Amino acid sequence: MKCPYCGYTESKVVDSRPTDESERIRRRRECLKCGKRFTTYEVIESVPIVVIKKDKSREAFDRQKLLNGLLRACEKRPVSLDTLEHIVGEIEVLLQNSLDKEVSSQRIGTYAMEKLKSVDEVAYVRFASVYRQFRDINSFMEELNKIISQKQGN
């Protein structure tokens, strides 16, 4: 395992435990050269999920790409990285457990929006504005009005 700080390839495992969903093993490592600690995740290799994009092109599912999109939506919001990693993990499990090995980017976006909605409404609206490509202020206001009416219904 290559140290992200100095690039040295030797490290020792300081702590090892399964993640909450028991899909991965979280390992705390310490670089044998610089002594800094970093976290790695060990994942069972499985059949890759292919994402069908809007232009009908296909690419392998990239959890980091999804996490980056969620991070952008949650910028300057009180949402922890652990929460976002948990959301990505849940979506990945949903995709792995489905019978389809090809999934549309729209379905992944819908899953992400559903998860974000319960975590942070501002982040949800930010993500939705990019995902749904709001054309004007009216389409943006429609989405906000849906949220408001759902809150008033509770």
UniProtKB/TrEMBL annotation:
The lineage of its organism: Bacteria, Bacillati, Bacillota, Clostridia, Eubacteriales. GO terms for biological process: negative regulation of DNA-templated transcription. InterPro entries: ATP-cone_dom, NrdR-like_N, RNR_NrdR-like. PANTHER family: TRANSCRIPTIONAL REPRESSOR NRDR (PTHR30455). The keyword Membrane does not apply. Its cofactor is Zn(2+). A zinc finger (unnamed) spans 3-34. It holds the Pfam family ATP-cone. It comes from Acutalibacter muris. The keyword Nucleotide-binding applies. Negatively regulates transcription of bacterial ribonucleotide reductase nrd genes and operons by binding to NrdR-boxes. PROSITE patterns: ATP_CONE. One of its GO terms (molecular function) is ATP binding. Keywords: ATP-binding, DNA-binding, Metal-binding, Nucleotide-binding, Repressor, Transcription, Transcription regulation, Zinc, Zinc-finger. This is Transcriptional repressor NrdR. It comes from the Bacteria.
